[in-house]
Design a protein that fits this description.
The complex is a heterodimer of chains A (290) and B (292). With 290 residues, chain A is mainly α. Helices cover 79% and strands 0% of the residues of chain A. Chain B is mainly alpha-helical and 292 residues long. Chain B has 11 helices and no strands. In chain B, α1 crosses α2, α4 packs antiparallel against α5 and α4 packs antiparallel against α9. The chains are: A mainly alpha (290), B mainly alpha (292).
């Protein structure tokens, strides 16, 4: 017990103060070199994250917090690497099967209906207020009904994902299709461009920032929908299933491991979409350089 | 008259189409069960009788809208508010934790935003993590928060409110950062020429200009706060609240109960958002930001 209770707390607090001071120093300084500035801008939040983990570990160990209440990050990591095969099966069930298929179907349907609504003003006026209204409703509550209709397997989860991502996609795409300038549309007319040419060459590219906004919102919504739907019944795998059963057994470290996996999946898909957005909407002022 | 035709007619038409589709789907979804029953009892039924019966099942796969409405009326007006089966009682349980979480979340969001606006280090280190925190399917943590808090003796309103807090602080924090930084450099310079103190600049310039952003974010926050409260009620062994009604209904195949809880949740969401929109308009009017 050389490094006893207070040792952990002191070490964590010292690290925290040190990291805080360093971040304060770094964020006040201007670096001439662009590359160094970029790395520093990446380093600051990274250090903040590491500090949180160190504080968490130190305080949990120092105060002897019960494992049930909050396991230390090192324990969660140990559990994660121990049961990677179980978590991989869960990941495949929830993410690869339910989330991706539901996401593709829901976003696709939202996109197509948005194009139709854009073409038919009556439909747009009817659907948009409804879409905005539905966006504030707890759609996730449909989960038990979807489980009843489509069974326990991934199909019901995909169905709830479709229901959750459809309206954000619809509303954003319709807004995006209205984003092209009158001037630009007039230019297309002077070229005698057909409806489809205008759509493909002007209006869809102009709508891309809006569409990507919806895609990014939806990537998180889809994961949430699939996980919560599994609370209402699922086969014996899936991240939501794992979380709800292990919570019942008070295996909190396993729960945190499952949460870590879903957090990683959520952040990576968000990051991938953000990268794709940079690639597709390179012309947009928020991305364009110089 | 023209506004009526322009705005309300299309919405009503879409709703009417949805309702017609719903009524048309009821026999489609419920007939297999009815046919099974008929075969089992050795009864012969005409198609007309069969369809009529699909609209009056006790545990239909898809209940007809009027069945759901009847159930809502029965469980709201027909029962005492204190009854455990009263939908108003359950809605109140959900509403109270929604409001508590929303209040916490909004306060936390505003405080974080103020911190970020006034400290560059906080801006650079915290902001990326706030955004990352929302790419995490945080509702997954809901059952754990509830069960773990119950294990250390904290039950009832607080665990659910914590979930709602976590969900609702984000839109408020992001919106308020935008709002508090929305005054133009010219306006900030003017405050300096007035020799205004930091607090004066904050309360007389930054805060009023952030108010429109605050209300817009609050609309998102209250909706998501309600979702958090409902999901927070799922793992508590189905005691009370709209989430518990959903879970209980799905255990016992009480579909009409599920739908009535859903309708209630939707009504609650609509009312809460409407209240904030109303407050939004009132406050903006007092600040002279919209015309009377």
């Amino acid at each position: 017990m050389i490094f006893g209770m207070n040792g952990w707390i002191t070490a964590a607090l010292v690290f925290w103060l040190f990291a805080w001071a360093l971040n304060e120093f770094l964020s006040r300084r201007e670096f001439g070199n662009g590359f160094i500035q970029k790395s520093v801008n990446l380093f600051i939040p990274l250090l903040f994250g590491i500090t949180l983990l160190v504080l968490w570990e130190g305080l949990v160990r120092g105060f002897n917090v019960s494992q049930i209440l909050l396991p230390a990050p090192s324990l969660i990591w140990a559990k994660l690497s121990q049961s990677s095969s179980i978590l991989w099966t869960d990941f495949r069930q929830t993410y690869l099967k339910a989330v991706i298929s539901g996401y593709v179907m829901g976003c696709g349907a939202g996109f197509i209906v948005a194009i139709l609504a854009d073409r038919v003003p009556f439909l747009r006026k009817g659907l948009l207020p409804l879409g905005n209204f539905v966006a504030s409703l707890p759609i996730i509550g449909l989960a038990p009904i979807m489980v009843l209709w489509f069974g326990f397997d991934w199909q019901s989860k995909a169905a709830i994902v479709v229901a959750m991502v459809f309206f954000p996609m619809l509303v954003n795409t319709v807004a995006g299709l209205a984003a092209a300038d009158t001037m630009q549309k007039d230019l297309m007319r002077t070229y005698a461009a057909s409806y489809f040419q205008t759509l493909l060459k002007l209006r869809l590219p102009a709508a891309m920032p809006f569409i990507f906004n919806a895609l990014k919102i939806n990537s998180t919504l889809a994961l949430i929908g699939a996980i919560v739907a599994e609370f209402f019944g699922s086969p014996v795998s899936g991240l939501g299933f794992r979380i709800s059963t292990e919570v019942g057994k008070l295996n909190v470290d396993m729960v945190w491991a499952a949460i870590a996996v879903s957090a990683l999946a959520g952040s990576l898909s968000y990051g991938a979409l953000a990268l794709l957005e940079r690639f597709v909407t390179f012309w947009h002022p928020s991305i364009r350089r110089g | 008259m023209s506004t009526l035709r322009q705005t309300i007619m299309p919405v009503l038409t879409v709703i009417a189409v949805i309702m017609a589709f719903w009524y048309a789907m009821v026999p489609v979804m419920n007939t297999p069960y009815e046919r099974d029953q008929a075969v089992r009892d050795g009864r012969a039924m005409t198609t007309g009788q069969m369809i009529a019966r699909t609209y009056a099942q006790e545990k239909p796969i898809l209940p007809a809208p009027h069945q759901v409405l009847a159930e809502i009326v029965k469980t709201t007006i027909g029962l005492k508010v204190t009854s455990k089966r009263s939908l108003i009682y359950h809605a109140w349980v959900t509403l109270s934790s929604t409001l508590l979480g929303f209040a916490f979340g909004t306060t936390l969001g505003v405080l974080i935003a103020v911190g970020i606006v006034y400290s560059k280090a906080l801006d650079k280190s915290l902001m990326p993590w706030i955004i990352t925190s929302q790419t995490i399917p945080i509702l997954a943590i809901a059952p754990m928060v509830v069960v773990v808090m119950a294990a250390i003796g904290v039950t009832g309103l607080l665990p659910k409110a914590i979930i709602s807090t976590y969900l609702s602080f984000f839109p408020v924090a992001v919106g308020m950062v935008k709002g508090l930084t929305s005054p133009e450099p010219m306006q900030l310079d003017l405050m300096r020429t007035y020799h205004a103190s930091g607090a004066q600049t904050f309360f007389k310039l930054r805060w009023p200009s952030a108010l429109p952003y605050l209300f817009t974010s609050m609309k998102v926050a209250i909706a998501i706060s309600l979702v958090g409260a409902i999901v927070g009620e799922l793992p508590t062994g189905a005691q009370a609240g709209l989430g518990a009604r959903l879970l209980g209904g799905s255990y016992y195949g009480q579909t009409i109960q599920i739908w009535s809880a859903l309708f209630m949740a939707a009504a609650l969401a609509a009312i809460l958002v409407a209240i904030i929109s109303f407050a939004h308009k009132q406050v903006l009017r007092r600040y002279g930001l919209v015309e009377r």
